[in-house]
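Annotated sample (chain length 128).
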Amino acid sequence: MIQKISTNDFIKHLRTTQKSSAYSSISPTAFTVAYRRTFSDIPFTKELYNELEKIRLKNNEPDFPDEYKFLQMAPLFEARHKLINKLTIDQHNFQILDIASGLTPRGLEMTADANYKYIEIDLPEIIK
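Output written by the structure step:
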């Protein structure tokens, strides 16, 4: 069962369930960007988001309110993802350190080619 809540209740939920830190609002941002990528042809996006949804449901966490999803921005995130991939490949960068990688499938894409060495780093909450 998908639980829908108001934006105000969602913000209250974030404040009460997340550790107080300057970085506590990053996770919802990464989650909503991952959602927007599912509307593209970027490999692994749907699988990644489905796993996130399983975790969210298992933890009994509410869904993001629709106004957090901003679907009209999906093409922007798709274009940004593809541009970064293109520039990386065109410049023959075979060793990549992705700092604040978020929930991007780029590591999965790049390491499909054994020539790439790809390391992702992010906050412990995102990695978990």
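Annotation: The mean pLDDT is 83.
Annotation: DSSP finds six helices and two strands in the chain.
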